[in-house]
Amino acid sequence: MSMSNPYWAIWWATIGLGYILYCRTLGLPGIAVFFAGHIMGDLVWYSLVAFIVAKGRHLLTAGVYRRLIGACAAFIVCFAFYFLYSGIKRLVG
C-alpha cells in the first residue's frame, strides 16, 4: 500500500535513509529495531483506520455513501482538469 504513494521513494531516499544511517551506528540490532518499529507503526495506523471504518460503517446510509463517493470523484476530476490546465499553460508559455 505504501509503495503506491508517489512520495514513498522520496521519503526513503531522504528521511528514511537518514534514519537508517543513524541506526546503523548501533549495528544490525539498531537497524532491526528501526525496521520493526517502522512496520509496527504501519500496522497500528492501518489497523486504526480499518477499525474506524468498520465501526463507522453503520453511520452512513447507502445514499449518503454514494453521494460521498460522488463528491470525492468530482473533486478528483476537478484536480485532473486543474493539473491538465496548469501543465498546458506552463508548456505554452
Number of helices: 3
Portion in strands: under 5%
- Class from secondary-structure proportions: mainly alpha
Mean pLDDT: 90
Tell me the major beta sheet.
none
Q: What letter string, H or E per element, gives the SSE order?
A: HHH
Per DSSP E runs of 2 or more residues, the count of β-strands stands at: 0
Over all CA atoms, what is the radius of gyration?
Answer: 20 Å
> Shape from CA axes?
flat
Helix content: over 70%
Distance between the termini: 37 Å
Poorly predicted regions are none
Report on this model:
The protein contains three helices and no strands. It has helices at residues 8-24, 28-56, 62-92. α1 packs across α2. Helix content is 83%, strand content 0%. The protein has 93 residues and is mostly helical.
Annotate the secondary structure layout:
Layout: H1 8-24, H2 28-56, H3 62-92
Helix pairs in contact: 1-2
Task: List the keywords.
93 residues; mainly alpha; 0% strand; flat
Give a summary of the structure in a few sentences.
The protein is mainly alpha-helical and 93 residues long. It has helices at residues 8-24, 28-56, 62-92.
